[in-house]
Write a structure and sequence with these properties.
The chain is mainly alpha-helical. The protein has seven helices and four strands; from the N terminus they run αααββααααββ.
Length: 179
Amino acid sequence: MFDLRGELYRVFGVDLTNVPGISALTAQTIHCEIGTDVSRFRNASAFASWLGLCPEKKISGGKVLFTKSRRVRSRVATALRMCAQSLHHAKDYLGEFFRRITRKLGRPQAITATAHKLARILFHLLSTKEEYNEGVFHTSEEETIRRAQYRLRRQAAQLGFQGHPRGEWLMFLGSHWRG
């Protein structure tokens, strides 16, 4: 019996089906349309742009006329959009990303944004031959939260607030405070 997933692992050198939403058929589509070598793209952004998953701005006279993705007839882009749609109920980082962007921008933009993220992940996996590791996203998210907390503390200090030693609430120390 033929094992498609094992054969794709042999061809790519990395298991693309470990990425949430990517099936063996999607990986086969990637192999047929792009191949195993992504070195012709200078970086992940160029790869995503070639797939038509990046927004393109039309500016005239300093005014932004519209921003939307280019129309590209790429089977890989279509497959990645379908993978992104399948992440709606996923209980992992990409599923949460899809739901967060859906709440913020709406479903069509969330599908494109998640497909863009999947394209960047695939480019990284194919160029470095590293296995997919979701822990990278968690450490990145923790760092983002830490920077946001630092920024909020700094802004609060500029406004005259001082953090409580436990860090759970802020107390106003300005001249208008009456205790």
